[in-house]
Amino acid sequence: MQLPVWFEIGSFVALGVILLIDLLLVVKRPHEPSMKEAGLWVAFYVALAMVFAVAMFGFAGPEYGGQFIAGWVTEYSLSIDNLFVFIIIMARFAVPRKYQQEVLMVGIIIALVLRGIFIALGAVVIEQFSWVFYIFGAFLLWTAWKQAKDEGEDEEEGAENKLVARLRKVVPMSEKFDGGKLRTTVDGKKVFTPMLIVFVTIGMTDLLFAVDSIPAIFGLTQSAFIVFTANIFALMGLRQLYFLLGGLMNRLIYLKHALSVILAFIGVKLVLHAMHVNELPFINNGQHIEWAPEIPTFVSLAVIVGTILVAVVASLMTPAAQRSKLDARLEEDSRKSYSDAE
Length: 342
Known about the structure:
By secondary structure, the chain is mostly helical. 72% of the residues lie in helices and 2% in strands. A two-stranded antiparallel sheet has the order 1-2. Helix 4 (100-128) runs parallel beside helix 8 (195-218). 37% of the residues are buried.
């Protein structure tokens, strides 16, 4: 893919400025956004991604433009799945609604840094070793199987894992939050607030999701530029989406199943690609396996979008009486957390 240097540099500069403005707004005016405010921001970021997609079609052609859209939709879907875990973390630690934007913004920055590192490493490894596609494919198939079986136990335990429990014991910490501060003064001594635990938990969650999501998008494109920009666009507006969806998040009961289907599809696509470019001597004598088909980008895009649409429609059509376990668990966690905080 040949893109003008000014386009690549300009894209990163523009996205960096937008993220910086977003961060400054959160720091200067912490608040719980209204549905209208959150909706306008989400619409702005989605429209921005579409404008960038049109630019990709114009500068790089339909193949790479399609790869960006497929990658963005996949990463956006996986990022929405992150929100389920963020909701549990916020409820478990009783983070005041007014300061949840700040926590989410820090989480997004951590995610960007971690994904940037994984993308750089992944691009180098793919360039040097084509057989890594076998590993990525197998990993995604395992992740898909695990996701299909998941009933929320890992997420429920995620807020109180061993590292967090140890941190509570060795770090002086106050019992209550002090606004959005990381440190406060108690009896004349400087101590950390529970916000530290929240940030650590969000950071570890981001790390786990980065490990899952980066192989997924490399299964759709090998362009590091597309991978990174798709991840940035997927993470932008995520905090506003958190407040916009609200209770609707708990009704998307089939989203996890849809994501498991998507990850399995990309896993198969990666294995087929690995067979097509095979260089391993113990597989087909190190020769390319010509009969292994390469799945076109437009087919990948159709499968990803179609699977998500089916999951969303099926979730919204499910009677309210059949709420997910997540919904009931969130209510219980919220009651316990706020009871403890009082």
